[in-house]
């Protein structure tokens, strides 16, 4: 992990920035924990406490979360370029302060949806900035490994918290005890972000100064140009954006619909908690390897294989019944997602110039987390109209199609094999 020295003595690389990088890994684990407090409990809360019988109504909290987080991601990139990464990170934690209390004691479903709007803003600001800051610190050579460590911390914490809240709910009830864990995460994360995290924007500027000289039109893009390039015109960036959307579309299914399917077949809250944790646990741990692996074998093959593996796993949930088979499907889904998740972020870091990279990350994450909203709406409407398994089969087919789009459309972006310009 060699370090590169940029302008004003700023050093790029994981080893040169190990203390700050490790601190940001911990902060992102706390970001993931805030999301994990909902994974097991909220679908059951909708059913058992608020008696929402329609899937579409029950999944409104994921729709609210996904739509809010997607839009916030976009602004997080622009704001972190304008004002710095650290102020945006701290703002994200301040906005989340009411969330655990709203989830734990909110008197109506509207309170739960409102809490998820705030949680979406929190996740959009904090997760986006920790991603951007780690890309800033890591430099170009270990970008996949850096994203793997970031996402492993976040989703490892999602898994651990989903299991812990499932166990708490089994013994103490669905509210408020499981959400007190989120309150503890929040206090710790805000303190670390305020007093220990340091600004990284100068690292991005140092890397930009080391880049080969490019024409101003390649370097000085407006936000609208960044959005168009990331969404449509660059083959790698746009393929990554659609794959990210479909990935989180199927994550919305796993979050909101799978627990209801498992409960309908007689599984206990604790068993559902184990299944809800298995998928992000494998996803989180797998990224420790897959991000690094993509630095060595390339991005395209891992993304394509990961989307197809996710599709097979979702089909297995739809086709089967019983704890052992569903556990196997959750493990496969976690492996597929681990192949995809850090690798897509690495593609954005590979292709985007440091001068507009934070905004490209924001646009990509706008599309990716928009998948939560699309997935919640699609799964809810299909489950209400045709049944829960029909919704799951549809998402399996969409995920396979997304993998094929990547295989056909994208080009390899891994830095030491990528030359020339691709439009």
From TrEMBL:
InterPro entries: MFS, MFS_dom, MFS_trans_sf, MFS_Transporters, Sugar_transporter_CS. Residues 17-414 form the Major facilitator superfamily (MFS) profile domain. The keyword Transport applies. Keywords: Cell membrane, Membrane, Transmembrane, Transmembrane helix, Transport. The keyword Cell membrane applies. GO terms for molecular function: transmembrane transporter activity. It is found in: Cell membrane. It holds the Pfam family MFS_1. The chain crosses the membrane at residues 12-35, 55-76, 88-105, 111-132, 152-173, 179-197, 301-319, 325-348, 369-386, 392-411. It comes from the Bacteria. One of its GO terms (cellular component) is plasma membrane. It is a multi-pass membrane protein. This is MFS transporter.
